[in-house]
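[Help] Beginner question about ligand-bound structures

Sorry if this is basic. My supervisor gave me a protein sequence and a SMILES string for pyridoxal-5'-phosphate and asked me to "get the holo structure". I don't really know what that means in practice or what format the answer should be in. Inputs are pasted below exactly as I got them.
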Amino acid sequence: MAKSGQHGGNVLQMAEKHGLHPDQVIDFSANINPAGMPDKLRQQIIDNLSCLEQYPDIEYTQLHEAIARHHDCSANTVLAGNGATELIFLWAHYVQPKKALLVEPGFAEYRRALLRTECTIADFILREEEGFQITERLLSALTPDLDCLFLCTPNNPTGLIPDQHLLSEIIERCHHLNIRLFIDESFLDFTPEYQSATRYLKQYPNLYILRSLTKFYALPGLRLGYLLSSDEQLLETIREQREPWTINALAALAGETLFDDTQYHQTTYAWLNSEQDYLFTALSRFSSLKCFAPTANYLFFKHLRKNSDLQFQLMQQGILIRSCANYTGLDKRFYRVAIKSREDNQKLVRTLEQVLRHD
Ligand SMILES: Cc1ncc(COP(=O)(O)O)c(C=O)c1O
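Answer (accepted):
No worries, everyone starts somewhere. Holo just means with the ligand present. The predicted complex, written as structure tokens, is below.
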């Protein structure tokens, strides 16, 4: 099992450590839509609890068709999983890359999945002086000895999206050099103004696009994600050889209906539109914080004071933020916070005012 400190969302452990009841803690460390799961889905789950008394369809035909309809692609190019995480591990297991390039700081599970195979891992470190943006340096780092590159757009934890023209060049270069390109778009639903790389899928069979439904629809406990690729042979092999029934029946049901919930989508965009600005502006006012403009539902910043522990200080006030000290390429001055409701965001700002008073 992954260590509890490796991801955000460890409310129970952190509350216990600080002598608090979990209800006294506001969790800014996990990037989950604060709207909670869509009401329609909640009702649907209640109405369909008895589906748990049967095995789900082993092929998840309706689920795959719903995802394919949403992306206007063929169901053969879709593979659903028990959260995006399962698909990262399945992909690494069935591809068995010999050499991978990881963009760091990035999501920790790519490395964990690759380390289970006999893969050599090279790091492409994003630089603070480049604003942690992917630059043309990445093009030169793409060499023929690589089997795969992992990219995350928007990136976790930096929240940045690469320039779209540069992204198309990266895709083209990977294709030219026969490098499989794994693009994690788990947070892209939060940024409707950015185009998905799914538009390249038909043209590039070396492209694999990962999506998660757990963040946007606030379902991290239900578990649902999917992979899209026109490498139908790989998807077919995984389909044939993976363990059966890893997606529970309620998650499968959710995936069949969530994409049509336009009301939930609109409410989420309206909330994020206002709260992204609010929190970025408010945190940017602190002279000891350097904030990076967010694109999705979380905000990445650096505390310019060297020897303080902002996570500890805020936790003493019942606010849990994500320390980014354990990301490759970062240190304990870096943090990530989820963007939440106005009320919670204001509490974060007020608590920071107290904590940073002497900075
Ligand atoms: C970038 C990224 N990809 C994938 C995942 C995993 O998502 P899921 O909950 O669908 O397994 C996460 C979870 O934090 C993430 O940050």
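A couple of things worth pointing out: The chain has a mean pLDDT of 96. The pocket of pyridoxal-5'-phosphate is lined by residues 83-85, 107, 152, 156, 184, 186, 212, 214, 220, 225 (CB under 6 Å). Feel free to follow up in the thread.
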